[in-house]
From TrEMBL:
Lineage of the species this protein comes from: Bacteria, Bacillati, Actinomycetota, Actinomycetes, Micrococcales
Keywords: Cell membrane, Membrane, Transmembrane, Transmembrane helix, Transport
Record's protein name: Peptide/nickel transport system permease protein
Segments crossing the lipid bilayer: 39-61, 107-132, 139-163, 169-190, 234-257, 280-302
Annotated ABC transmembrane type-1 domain residues: 104-302
The UniProt record lists the keyword Transmembrane helix: yes
Originating species: Demequina mangrovi
């Protein structure tokens, strides 16, 4: 009897998935089946190629993004694809392949700065707005609605002009584009976080934390925040694709980065418009294809994660494993049920469990 009782917890612990398999993307990949898995894998492959290209740009690019000549002489303008220039050269004499590879690094930097700043500001404001409510909540919601009223690309153009101050340096252009995109994304994170916080702050485990005397800061960070950001990976991937399109739109309209400062796909497309009518296809096809493939990869990942996180959209194969994570993290301050082992939280209320597993 004693040996059986001792082995029971060990068997339960061994059957529980590891922390690595419970990560957002990994857990959804294990749950996906059929077409959903194919979409998610395709999106991850395209996104992985984009990330590797951006990180390894100095080793992959045959030339610099603003290089016009090598030891053999000048590259020449509008040279067709050849062994020396696999994707040809642009009207300015730049190597298309090198501009393509270095442009992925510019896009990645803009995504990192824009999404990180948006999450930091938007989630913080949404947490404060949803938790405390009152007049502060109403003011923040009105400001978010006012930002939504402006066309996103027009707002990005105005902010890019104001932030950059006419400068076209690499970091000046990247920060101008990233910060202008940040202003567009902040209301999205604010609204999503606020809605989740309003729902979670009335749960039983939050009320229990208040009863035992936990401070507002501890409740907000340890209980509310960690349970209200479960949809962030979905919004992050979709916003990353939108950031690529906004950056390309700014560059195409002439508000991007100069070619001597950094490579940017939208700017290259702008300079290739006149080449299309002359039958010169390589200067526009490859930058446009890069934008489409990166946006497609990020969108496939975001849409797949969205389908798998929504029980109403998730289609599971017969005999699939049940979902173990109910989506509620009780934190460290949750009370312990009588007779339960140390560290075990009190079972959630039936209504809360039903809502979480629905």
């Amino acid at each position: 009897m004693a040996s059986a009782a001792a082995t029971a917890p060990a068997a339960t612990a061994s059957s529980r998935p590891s922390r690595w398999t419970r990560l957002p993307v990994i857990s959804q990949l294990r749950q996906s089946v059929g077409l959903q898995r194919g979409m998610l894998v395709a999106g991850l492959v395209l996104t992985g190629i984009f990330l590797l290209t951006a990180l390894l740009a100095p080793m992959l690019a045959p030339y610099g993004f603003s290089q016009l000549r090598d030891e053999d002489g000048s590259f020449g303008s509008l040279q067709e694809p050849s062994s020396a220039h696999l994707l040809g050269t642009t009207v300015g004499g730049y190597d298309v392949l090198s501009r393509l590879i270095w442009g992925s690094r510019t896009a990645l930097l803009v995504i990192i700065v824009a999404v990180a700043a948006s999450i930091l500001v938007g989630v913080t404001l949404g947490l404060i707005s949803g938790y405390f409510g009152g007049w502060l909540d109403r003011v923040l919601v009105v400001i978010a609605d006012a930002i939504y009223a402006f066309p996103s690309l027009l707002l990005a153009i105005v902010l890019a002009i104001v932030i950059s101050g006419g400068q076209s340096s690499m970091w000046g252009g990247i920060l101008a584009a990233a910060l202008s995109i940040t202003v567009i994304f902040i209301p999205q994170y604010l609204r999503v976080t606020r809605a989740e916080v309003i729902r979670i702050k009335s749960e039983a485990f939050v009320e229990s934390a208040r009863v035992i005397g936990a401070s507002h800061a501890r409740i907000m960070i340890r209980h509310v925040l960690r349970n209200s950001t479960r949809t962030m990976p979905l919004i992050l991937t979709l916003n990353a694709s939108e950031a690529i399109l906004t950056l390309a739109g700014l560059g195409f309209l002439g508000f991007g980065i100069e070619p001597t400062a950094a490579a940017e796909w939208g700017y290259d497309l702008n300079k290739a418009v006149s080449d299309v009518t002359s039958g010169i296809w390589w200067t526009s096809v490859f930058p446009g294809m890069a934008i489409v493939l990166v946006v497609l990869g990020l969108t496939l990942v975001g849409e797949s994660l969205n389908d798998l996180s929504d029980p109403r959209l998730r289609k599971r194969a017969a005999g699939a494993e049940p979902v173990e994570d109910l989506g509620v993290d009780l934190g460290d301050d949750a009370p312990v049920a009588p007779g339960a082992p140390a560290g075990a939280p009190e079972p959630a209320a039936p209504a809360a469990a039903k809502e979480a597993s629905a």
